[in-house]
Design brief:
Largest sheet: 7 strands, mixed
CATH superfamily of the largest domain: Periplasmic binding protein-like II
CATH class of the largest domain: Alpha Beta
CATH architecture of the largest domain: 3-Layer(aba) Sandwich
Shape: globular
Strand content: 15-25%
Distance between the termini: 43 Å
Number of domains: 3
Helix content: 40-55%
């Protein structure tokens, strides 16, 4: 067993799909699949069950997963200690993120950055993706983690992952009877959705409008847990990224898939201004698997070298 295999195990357990896990690890799907098979051969037991729709951990995989996470965390802590001892970085770093992105967990990322570079003064803002992109354009933020593809043409951006949108409904709702729902069936139902500044709101509006599914947004929220609470209380249904439907607070709600060929995808990206502080590249470096450097990180390093 080696660290790269542990990285693949964690990514596949989190993503539950070879294609997405390979993208996260920045390797080919065949390479990731071969590495997992090699590890299973070494251990003498399957770690995952494979179906056409998803990949799930076996009992053996569940037993290995916490040790895989601990190995990666320990290796990261060691690298951070070396960086802290051999490099100095100071200044300010302004970071923003939308709530509960799923694809990237921003608080632990900032914690790790602070351990590496304790002299950098971190300022963090939580807001909707459209507001964050506006702040990037205005120079008020160095880095933002957003869930929108709109208005990103004039900033550096790197896609971190994507999730399909699903319908959440309370048990007993007319649309909760089956595993899938057609767009026409959404017409005139009462919805709960996020404020206009959230990327998922504009994604939902565009998808429903394009398919003639007029809807009434009865409740507008600025918090995912409030949205789930309102669904539990039967005040409406909601279109949400798949990872929201998998939260513990969503237990008991019905998750209904949209038509496969027209399911919207919720895309999470890291975006930076062209004149972002040099520390922005160091933050994004922590998103990379060991031994990799993203084009976005390379661009930021080059820009910093020119200043």
């Amino acid at each position: 067993m080696d660290l790269r295999q542990m990285e693949y195990v964690v990514a596949l357990a989190d993503e539950q799909q070879f294609t997405r896990a390979a993208a996260v690890c920045r390797v080919s799907q065949s390479g990731l699949s071969a590495a997992i098979r090699s590890l299973e051969d070494e251990l003498g037991t399957p770690l995952f069950t494979r179906t056409t729709r998803r990949v799930d951990l076996t009992d053996a995989g569940l037993a290995l997963l916490p040790f895989a996470r601990a190995s990666l965390a320990q290796a990261a802590a060691g690298r951070d200690a070396v960086v802290r001892a051999t490099a100095s970085l100071s200044g300010r770093l302004h970071v923003g993120a939308e709530q509960c992105l799923g694809v990237v967990d921003v608080p632990p990322l900032l914690e790790r950055f602070h351990r590496r570079y304790p002299l950098v003064d971190i300022h963090f803002t939580q807001a909707g993706s459209h507001d964050l992109v506006t702040q990037i354009h205005a120079g008020a933020l160095d880095v933002a983690f957003v869930a929108t593809t709109e208005h990103l043409s004039t900033v550096h951006s790197r896609e971190l992952g994507r999730r399909p949108v699903v319908l959440l409904a309370p048990p007993g709702h007319p649309l909760a009877a089956g595993p899938t729902v057609e767009w026409a069936e959404l017409r005139d139902h009462e919805f709960i959705d996020f404020r206009d500044s959230w990327g998922v709101r504009s994604l939902n509006e565009a998808a429903c409008s394009a398919r003639g599914a007029s809807r009434r947004v009865r409740c507008t929220v600025d918090d995912i847990h409030t949205l789930l609470d309102l669904i539990h209380r039967r005040l409406g249904i909601a279109l949400v990224p798949q990872h929201v439907a998998e939260k513990p607070q969503a237990a008991g709600l019905a998750t209904i898939r949209l038509p496969r060929e027209t399911t919207p995808e919720w895309v999470v990206s890291a975006v930076t201004a062209h004149d972002a502080d040099a520390s922005a590249s160091r933050l994004l470096e922590l998103l990379e698997p060991p031994g990799h450097a993203s084009p976005l990180h390379q661009d930021l390093v080059a820009a910093a070298d020119l200043r």
